[in-house]
Design the sequence.
């Protein structure tokens, strides 16, 4: 708790901001993050003897510089400054201040990070699981295989419904970002693993007396599996395969793209499979048919056996 001569009047503005944010329905997680960010700003303001929030842009930049001096990484600084910009914008919009001193506040430059991905050998080790013997083991095998076979985002994977399986075409109907739908093929080995999982899935629901579910991947209560659960399952599988532990489900998506590209698949075709938002321009000039896409995929994917 920040204390001091100026803490009370300054804190009143922050408290009013939090109350309005809660009234607008921000999530508890967001509210906690905003509280922590603005506590840092309040501490800086009190130590700097700010009389109120009517300060200059230079004064606010002093807070941004202090974040860097504390050794916070650029991503953390950017999150805090985003909260600060939102707070000062709210102060200005509600006429608590005459000018917004944070309107020109910029985030620190973010370092360029190469996306993590597995080598083909690591991918094979991760997917070389013992034969599935029950619902949990078949589910793990299937979700890992589909992540690597189709390059799905984890949110897209858990969002799949049974009706999205076009098994005759070995294709998934995927709802991606911006609710854009795309069709993504999967290879024959993935089809066998998927069929086995569907058998265990049906037996699992029947044995538990659970009602039918539209979701493809289920948790132990018969509900839809969550992205958090998928990440936990992947961590366990990585440890069992003695593969680098700091790899997310998204790394399998990057591995999918990298390995196909290394094996000669056209980059535009890979972008079609991934459903990148940046494809809007490319799609105006390139129209790959599903049959052509599937043939190219079968030729290029490391685990596709034709």
Sequence:
């Amino acid at each position: 708790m920040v204390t001091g001569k100026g803490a009370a009047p300054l804190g009143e503005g922050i408290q009013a901001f939090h109350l309005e944010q809660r009234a607008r329905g921000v999530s508890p997680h967001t509210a906690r993050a905003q509280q922590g960010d603005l506590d840092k700003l309040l501490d800086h303001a009190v130590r700097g003897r700010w009389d109120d929030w009517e300060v200059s842009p230079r004064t606010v930049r002093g807070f941004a510089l202090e974040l860097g001096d504390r050794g916070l990484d650029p991503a953390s600084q950017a999150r805090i400054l985003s909260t600060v910009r939102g707070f000062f914008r709210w102060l200005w919009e509600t006429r608590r201040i005459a000018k917004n001193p944070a309107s020109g506040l910029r985030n620190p430059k973010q370092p360029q990070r190469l996306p993590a991905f597995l080598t083909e050998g690591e991918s094979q080790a991760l997917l070389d699981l013992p034969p599935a013997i029950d619902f949990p083991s078949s589910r793990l095998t299937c979700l890992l295989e589909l992540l690597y076979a189709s390059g799905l985002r984890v949110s897209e994977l858990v969002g799949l419904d049974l009706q999205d399986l076009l098994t005759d075409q070995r294709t998934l109907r995927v709802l991606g970002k911006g609710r854009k739908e795309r069709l993504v093929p999967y290879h024959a080995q993935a089809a066998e693993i998927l069929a086995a999982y569907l058998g265990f899935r049906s037996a699992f629901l029947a044995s538990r007396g659970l009602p039918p579910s539209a979701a493809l991947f289920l948790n132990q209560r018969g509900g839809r599996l969550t992205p958090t659960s998928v990440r936990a399952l992947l961590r366990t599988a990585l440890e069992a395969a003695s593969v680098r532990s700091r790899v997310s489900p998204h790394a399998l998506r990057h591995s999918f793209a990298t390995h196909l590209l290394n094996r000669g698949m056209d980059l535009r075709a890979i972008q079609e499979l991934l459903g990148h938002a940046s494809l809007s321009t490319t799609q105006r000039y390139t129209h790959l048919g599903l049959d052509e896409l599937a043939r190219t995929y079968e030729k290029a994917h490391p685990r596709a056996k034709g």
About this structure: The CA atoms of residues 218 and 224 lie 5 Å apart. The first strand starts at residue 165 and ends at 166.
